[in-house]
Amino acid sequence: MNFILLAYITNPKHKISEFVPVNYEKYGKIRSLVTPTIFLISLLVCFFDPGTGRMVLFLIPFAMAYIGRKIRKENAVVISHPGKKVKKR
């Protein structure tokens, strides 16, 4: 649901948001898909080993941290607005 909402808001043809940085859009979409994916993996593991299946849910914060680090590292250049200069960190 969050993925669909974010995709709709960031689509320029809908004219809902004025400017959304590409890195924010990418991070939001990936983040909205990670939690349900880990829940589905946990559900599948629960059929074979219920104890381990419950422990899989503890991967969610680590996955979020990993994704955050990866996105920040990929986007060393930050664009504040399309008409302004590009800043480097």
Record keyword descriptors for this entry.
mainly alpha, 66% helix, two-stranded antiparallel ribbon, 89 residues, single chain, 4 helices
Care to describe what's here?
The chain has 89 residues and is mainly alpha-helical. The chain has one domain. It contains 4 helices and 2 strands; from the N terminus they run ααααββ. The chain has helices at residues 2-10, 22-48, 50-56, 59-74, and strands at residues 77-79, 86-88. The chain has a two-stranded antiparallel sheet with strand order 1-2. α2 runs antiparallel to α4. The longest helix has 27 residues, at 22-48. The protein starts with a helix and ends with a strand.
Draw up the topology in text.
Blueprint: H1 2-10, H2 22-48, H3 50-56, H4 59-74, E1 77-79, E2 86-88
